[in-house]
Amino acid sequence: MPKDTSLPLKYWQAVIELPSSSGKRRRKFVRNKNKATVVAELKRLQKDLADIGDMPTASQTLESWIRFWFAHIHSKKIAPKTIASYRTSIEQYIVPAVGKTRLDKLTPQHVRKVEEAIRDKGLGGSTAQQAHAVLRLALRDAVREGRVSRNVATLVDQPKKKKVELPRLDVNGGIRVLEAVAHERLGSRVATALLAGARQGEVLGIELDRVTDELDLSWQLKRFSWSHGCNPSKPWEPHCGAKRGAECPERHLNAPEDREYRHLTGGLWLSRPKSESGWRIIPLVDPLRSIIERRVEAARLEPNPHGLLWTSEPKRAPGGVELDGSPIDPSTDNAYWHDVLNRAGVQDAQLRTARNTTVDLLYAAGVDEMTIIDIVGHSTVAMARHYRSRQNRDVLRDALQRAYLPLTRPDRTIEAKDEGEAA
Q: Whole-structure pTM over 0.90, yes or no?
């Protein structure tokens, strides 16, 4: 028997009047077959309206909001490398898992679904933590703009990740590495990592005019990803047909306007630290001073279009092998570091752990903790570094001299004798 459709279905409906900015009437409707459901939803919306002051008449999906939010709101606040990693979280994990869900229908279970999707792909806690952080930030701003009434991501605990104890060089291992690279063209680069506690980008970004009796670490060499510029309103839907932003005819660096960047070549840039308080100046004392001075002399005789202290190793050219003065790519630098550790016969360790070796040297020399923090540039005393006086620099210089004392013994050979020979 065919269904009788002549009688309309019975729905309960409520209407909320919303503020109007253009003179047009704005209303939000709530409809349901169950009267109690409509009443409960009406009370919730009335409370949200009183708290927030406004709300959208129709809810958009999470996919629509998070892409708009990232392109036009959040990406203007974060560094280029962070932009690339956040975009991965959005496009590969969040949108595929829960992107079709309406913002006002999101629940804590949807947040957990994102983590489950990441774990199902065999990925770890770090990936899940970042996706959770991105979703939490996107929903935070959705609440601020009145698009939703609550941030459900805050109701779910941050995913856990395994604690990994990275292997690192002890003091003796660090000395063996220094001895292994003593006569190599880039040996001074390794020495700076171990003796100054400088980060990879800080070392690779040092320019000749920032080397005096101190190392000025106010710029860092970074590899950034280019962004598409062919569809500004929807950068996630490029028009040009190129898969990579670097191939887009209208490519640009998506970066905060209050940060300084200088393009060198390809995807390599010099970038300022987040704030002036992050700029570090390390006093040069022997043996590092002599090592750096020899490298400066060699660098001035080499092709050096960017004025960098360290440049790439010789490359194959039509006439043979020659230096071109290009910056050292961070991936190439990492490969060199691991090769050095292997040749020195010490345990393999990540390049970033060289800073730990510096700290061990300083502790072994009896340097106080506050001075150690100041030398290696930990953020816990960033504001103190910003107001550092000349007298404090003398304290740093004395601390480094004490730390390097075991390295200046006659039976230790860690200084590069003639870098020009290796080139």
A: no
